[in-house]
Specification:
Blueprint (H helix, E strand, L loop, with lengths): L2 H9 L4 E4 L9 E7 L5 E9 L2 E9 L5 H5 L2
Antiparallel strand pairs: 1-2, 2-3, 3-4
Length: 72
């Protein structure tokens, strides 16, 4: 996965953003579920530091998480 793919997910119209309540003790963290131009759905954990988005981790969405993005 490339940085460019992660950036694409942030600009996707149907992206979903959730607050990561389990890992936000030191700083606010968020989970973004978004699709790339190649239709790859990503699970991205990020935070905002000094007015910049910092991606902490990114991976493909797994089967158990599909309902969070697709709503099924």
């Amino acid at each position: 996965m490339t940085n460019h793919e992660c950036e694409e997910a942030f600009f996707e119209a149907n992206k979903k953003i959730y607050k990561d309540i389990f890992h936000s003790s030191d700083e606010n963290r968020y989970i973004l579920l978004g699709c790339t131009f190649e239709k790859r759905v990503l699970f991205i954990v990020f935070t905002i530091r000094n007015k910049k988005i910092r991606v902490i981790s990114a991976r493909d969405l797994n089967k158990k998480e599909n309902h969070l993005y697709y709503g099924k």
